[in-house]
Amino acid sequence: MSSNSPSSWHPLGDVNHCPYIDFTREQWAKLASATPLPLTEDDVERLRGLGDPIDLAEVDAIYRPLTALLETYIAATRERAAKTQTFLGIDEPVTPFVVAVAGSVAVGKSTTARLLRDLLARFPETPRVDLVTTDGFLLPNAVLAERGLTERKGFPESYDRRALLDFVAGVKSGRDVMRAPVYSHTVYDIVPDQYIEVRRPDVLIIEGLNVLQPAPRSPSPEAVLAVSDFIDFSIYVDADPDDIECWYIERFLTLKRTAFTQPNSYFRRYADIEDDVAIEGARDIWRRVNLENLTQNIAPTRGRATVVLCKGADHHMRAVHLRKD
């Protein structure tokens, strides 16, 4: 373990003034020795995302210590809340602990979020864990087209930021029921009149591209809030952009043979073309849209995360960076 290794990546660049503690894969894996592993190979198969070859050994080495660490943060937050209530002479229900999982398209953040949900729910202190993706808060395609944002889907301006903020603030404030819209990756749009209901969970996991974005600048003297203001613990899944591009293209080809063949698929036009044409189309979408979004909006939020998980070209985590505070 080191906080100033020259070979380590640091979210703030300067290795001598970095607020992160660095762990190699081997150092981090040793932290799992006292933590039970409640998942099986079948569980991992069910939870892994498309194109993500994660296995039980990876869960054992990376996600066992991560969820155990998360439980210590949750316990500390609850203890502080209880002490604060005693000091103030009030008695309020415990509000949900909010975890954010951020990172690029195709980097594997969905798999990370699903694994955390299942692992955390197996701890007796946090049996109720909900997972919501920010995809549900994308503006409908018709609205994006009307605003000239069709080619900016996934960029911060393509979301209903007010609705997303109201949802997270409502959950964090202890509202009994909050509803999140449903997004279909098949039709590539919001599903009308369908919602996910969140009913005061112990933990809410929010997974999305831009969940660590700070509040936008505003000329108004009133305070402007962002989703990141309501997050208790955040994880950024990181990898080299060239590796992510390869994973994106591989996933695109898999979808070409599966989901894209459905009659109602938004990408149905790619199902019957030759692979080399599909690859060029996928590479164009990646570089013109997803890479630009990663460079401009997503990667700059990496230094705001509590934990940064660094993936190698084989999808395995090679290092973990934990914020000191």
Please tell me about this protein's structure.
Helix content is 36%, strand content 18%. The protein is of the alpha/beta class. It has a single domain, classed as P-loop containing nucleotide triphosphate hydrolases (Rossmann fold), CATH 3.40.50.300. The chain has a seven-stranded mixed beta sheet. Strands 4-5 form a two-stranded antiparallel ribbon. Helix 3 packs across helix 4 and helix 7 (241-257) crosses helix 8 (275-298). The radius of gyration is 20 Å and the shape is globular. Mean pLDDT is 88; it is low at 1-9.
Which keywords apply here?
two-stranded antiparallel sheet, disordered N terminus, alpha/beta, globular, Rossmann fold, 325 residues, 7-stranded mixed sheet
What order do the helices and strands come in, and which of them pair?
Blueprint: E1 20-24, H1 25-29, H2 41-47, H3 56-88, E2 97-103, H4 109-120, E3 129-133, H5 141-146, H6 161-172, E4 178-184, E5 189-198, E6 203-207, E7 233-238, H7 241-257, H8 275-298, E8 307-311, E9 317-323
Parallel strand pairs: 2-6, 2-7, 3-6, 7-8
Antiparallel strand pairs: 1-9, 4-5, 8-9
Helix pairs in contact: 3-4, 7-8
